[in-house]
Amino acid sequence: MSLLSSEPASSSAYTVRMATVLSTVVGVNIGYMAVLPFLPRLAADLSLDRTGLLIFVAGFGIAKVLAQPVGGWAADRWGQRVIGVTGLVVAAAGMVLVAVANDGGVALAGRLLWGAGDGLVSPAIYGAVGTISARYGKDSSRGYARLGVAAVLSFGAGPLIIGLVHAYAGYPVILSAAAGLTLLTALVAWWALPGRARGASAGDPAAADELAPEPVRSSRMLRAAVFFGAVDLCCNLVWAAMEPLVPLYLDRAVADAVGRSAWVLAFGMAVFAALSPLIARLPGRLRRPPAAAAGLLLLAAACVALGGVDRTVVALVGMAAFMAAQAFVYLVARDGIQRHCGGTGRAWGVFGMLSDVGFMVGPGIGVLLFQMSGSAAFPLLGVSSAVSAVLILVLLRSTRILTVGKEEILR
């Protein structure tokens, strides 16, 4: 069955279906961010020492990274619907365990389960955006832009909700509510995410998924997925390093460091959310793989500018450029997975595993750079981004890492 003919090419139907798919990330993202302000209270209630708290914080990311390739493989085998719903249910169970825990061991187990569930969900959601876009004959880039906006806004909603209700409810109540919302989104996901065709089964490999992406030779798919995952890792690492750097630097430079940091970071999130849909409307030729190098060079320049983040005009311009570059490379990388890997679950799993490593190690690198070099940490991040851009161009010009000819990639 043709992907483009499986549903009427209705813009309204596509919009409703895509919005419903994107809503499935809300519960897990709000829950993830909502627990962070409660970390000191949680550590005290559960008698977590420094090591225990470190495991609690880092364990989520490690479990998510390791679960993503599993989720991608499973999504190809059993369909995005089954794995997406399974991941959301597992994540909700992990939240409940943390909420009801009376000791550190139970809380840590819940946190790992929560991270694993989130890791299962990610490749299913990414794959669903691509297959639904193809089903309705739409550009998948616009779907990925909307997914990025939904993720940013739902992450930002967590601290906002805590700010409004923390005087009336502790983390057990808030996490339980987030778990309930996640279970509700699991029901939504069962309707919204693509599933297997009726004849598809493990015993009938010829019966294809009604929405399955076209297969790509495994070795080529793996090389391309690793390439685009590494590109995303570079961007995510710089983003995650920037987030602690801004408040650490402003604490030395301005009187109201907390307030200034909050609005600078919030402004950056708003820029990302506003620009992503606009960048998705650029012609596809402007999002070919070499464009990632241009995005990383813009990111490098923005990092250098953010060395003056204590000055209002510099902060606005630097953060706007920083998030414009992030939004651009975000789409280049995801377009690459769709085009060069066929958008398979396996590709999304490998991509997500590498991509999230940047968010895991970035904060530590940012703090370490600041401790070693102060405000020079921003230019140092810029240098690393520029070096990454050069390496990308060298790889594209000197290897056959992607699935089409070098001339087409570079054109």
Give a quick summary of the entry:
The chain has helices at residues 11-23, 26-35, 39-45, 50-78, 80-100, 104-135, 140-165, 171-192, 218-253, 257-279, 291-305, 312-340, 345-373, 377-398, 406-410. It is mainly α.
Describe the protein's topology.
Elements: H1 11-23, H2 26-35, H3 39-45, H4 50-78, H5 80-100, H6 104-135, H7 140-165, H8 171-192, H9 218-253, H10 257-279, H11 291-305, H12 312-340, H13 345-373, H14 377-398, H15 406-410
Summarize the structure in words.
- With 411 residues, this protein is an all-alpha fold.
- It is 78% helix and 0% strand.
- It has 15 helices and no strands.
- Helix 2 (26-35) crosses helix 7 (140-165), helix 5 runs antiparallel to helix 8 (171-192) and helix 6 (104-135) packs across helix 13 (345-373).
Please supply descriptive tags for the structure shown above:
411 residues, mainly alpha, 15 helices, 0% strand
- In round numbers, the mean pLDDT is 84
What is the straight-line distance between the termini?
33 Å
Helix amount, in percent?
Answer: over 70%
Question: What's the main sheet like?
Answer: none
Count the helices. How many? 15
Judging from the principal axes of the Cα atoms, what is the shape? globular
Radius of gyration: 21 Å
Order of helices and strands: HHHHHHHHHHHHHHH
Going by helix content, strand content and strand pairing, the class is mainly alpha
Number of strands: 0
Strand content: under 5%
Enumerate the spans where pLDDT stays under 50 for 5 or more consecutive residues. 1-8, 197-215, 405-411
